[in-house]
Design goal:
Helix content: 25-40%
Number of domains: 2
Strand content: 5-15%
CATH topology of the largest domain: Aspartate Aminotransferase, domain 2
Structural class: alpha/beta
Order of helices and strands: HHEHEHEHEHEEEEEHHHEEEHHE
CATH architecture of the largest domain: 3-Layer(aba) Sandwich
Number of helices: 11
Strand order of the largest sheet: 1-9-8-5-4-2-3
CATH class of the largest domain: Alpha Beta
CATH superfamily of the largest domain: Type I PLP-dependent aspartate aminotransferase-like (Major domain)
Shape: globular
């Protein structure tokens, strides 16, 4: 059966040398990986690689000084990895509804959910399909609330010709988990628009340490170097970063292959009156999956699996989990979940 996800792994000619080099922690390969990401996203992209997506979110939480009992607005139609980090820090997630035709945040619902305790809007771009970025960012600006673009599944996706990560949003986070593109086996990244916040995030990611002053002329820990911020051991290792760096050489080919496969799906499905294709004029998804809305979700999944395609609903709406508190009924979420089906659209299909 053709899988919905498949980890990509390029040749790794230097991996054995790195593993036996005695230099495995954050170093030259991690810095090179960050620079390659900055080139990919273009100007004004200040990038920090992290050792996991959870840590990337945690750095963003600390950077924005979001504390326990504070609130964030988020979509429940997201990967649990996107929402659980907030619960783990005692931050209340206030669920906003979604557009039932796109799976992404409904700007009108976001506006209604804003509260005096709202400290951030978490804008998930569902399964690689960008949401209403200009509208959500405008709401954040109007109320003075920072917006975090949750790009867990949308590396390479574009909105109005701009890559997610360079759309004017305050902070963007990406996952480099094994089934993402690129993957570093595990890892993540934070993109920060403000250079001052970037420098602060750099300290938070590394236990508050300023590496330029942390050691004295003997290489001993410098007693004059104060630690003023609480932080995390969240730097990416050179092993993971090297894998990511090698992956970056394949990104354009991967995205091209997935968009070509999406064109095949569109041609096959455009005349099926009962199937609606997830699409908007403003967006160019990375087609991590190919999304459709089917009248009978279960039957659609079974039919495609019988044909050799591992179709799936992918995510369960997170507002049903008791860890987040009382479940809230959201009509858009219910409608979307009832009909959404993801079809395989990865680079491996053409192979």
């Amino acid at each position: 059966m053709i899988p919905l996800y498949k980890p990509h792994m390029p040749p790794l000619p230097e991996l054995d040398d790195i593993l036996h080099s005695g230099q495995l922690a954050y170093g030259k390969y991690a810095k090179a990986f960050e620079r390659s990401l900055e080139r990919f996203f273009g100007e004004d992209a200040y990038v920090l690689a992290a050792n996991s997506f959870h840590m990337a979110i945690s750095v963003a939480i600390s950077l924005l000084e979001i504390h326990p009992s504070d609130e964030v607005i988020a979509s429940p139609m997201a990967c649990l990895a996107s929402t659980q980090p907030f619960a783990s820090q005692g931050i209340k997630v206030r669920w906003a509804d979604i557009d039932p035709y796109t799976g992404t945040l409904n700007p009108d619902s976001v506006r209604k959910k804003i509260h005096v305790n709202t400290k951030a809007i978490i804008h998930n771009h569902f399964c690689g399909y960008p949401g209403y970025i200009d509208e959500i960012n405008a709401i954040g600006k109007e109320y003075g609330i920072p917006v975090i673009d949750d790009g867990i599944e949308c590396f390479g996706s574009e909105y109005k010709g701009r890559k997610i990560g360079n759309c004017g949003t305050d902070i963007t986070i990406f996952s480099f988990n094994a089934v993402r593109i690129p993957n570093t086996v595990d890892g993540g990244a934070i993109i920060i628009k403000d250079p001052k916040l970037y420098r602060k995030a750099e300290l938070i990611r590394d236990c508050g340490i300023d590496r330029k002053n942390f050691r004295d002329d003997l290489g001993e820990i410098n007693a004059e170097c104060d630690i003023t911020l609480t932080g995390y051991s969240a730097t990416m290792s050179d092993v993971n970063a090297y894998i990511g760096l090698q992956q970056m050489g394949s990104i354009k080919r991967i995205l091209k292959a997935q968009r070509q496969q999406a064109a095949v799906w569109k041609k096959e499905l455009e005349e099926k009156e009962d199937i609606k294709i997830l699409q908007r004029r403003e967006i160019n998804p990375n087609y991590w999956v190919f999304g459709i809305l089917a009248p009978d979700k279960r039957k659609c999944i079974q039919d495609y699996r019988e044909k050799g395609w591992y179709a799936s609903g992918v995510h369960l709406n997170n507002n049903v989990y008791s860890v987040f508190g009382k479940e809230e009924t959201l009509p858009g979420v219910q409608e979307f979940y009832k009909h959404f089906v993801a079809l395989p659209c990865g680079w491996w299909i053409g192979e």
